[in-house]
Amino acid sequence: MMINKCFAFVLGLVLLIGISSAAAQVILIESPGCAKCAAAERAISGAIAENEDIQLVSYKYFSAEGKQIIRKYRAKDVPSIIIGNKVIN
Q1: Is the CB of residue 21 less than 8 Å from the CB of residue 51?
Q2: How many whole angstroms separate alpha carbon 3 and alpha carbon 23?
Q3: What is the arrangement of strands in the sheet containing 24-30, beginning at the earlier edge strand?
Q4: How far apart are CA 22 and CA 33, in angstroms?
């Protein structure tokens, strides 16, 4: 049930923000072993699976790239989902 709500939420955000432009990205900041992070990744993957123009990019919060993304977008928690310039913690 939680996955379905996450799926609907992420799909709604993707449509609302208008991320259907070519080569758009959804960024996921995650932590290994985090159940919420795994659920978020499944929900996002399901929401964007049918749109080949949207790419899911995942970063581990402790990696150099992950820390850079966290600073850039001011993400505060894991999982964090970044669509366009919007951060969902």
Answers
A1: no
A2: 25
A3: 54-60, 24-30, 80-83, 86-88
A4: 32
What digits encode the pLDDT tens for the residues 14-38? Answer: 555 555 454 578 899 999 999 999 9
CA–CA distance, 33 with 17 (Å, rounded to integer): 30
Angle between the N-to-C axes of helices 35-48 and 2-17, in degrees from 0 to 180, rounded to the nearest 10? 50
- Whether the pLDDT of residue 65 is over 50: the answer is yes
Q: Residue range 29-54: average pLDDT?
A: 86
Q: What is the β-pairing status of strands 54-60 and 24-30?
A: parallel
Its pTM stands at: 0.74
The 10 Å Cβ neighbour count of residue 42 is: 13
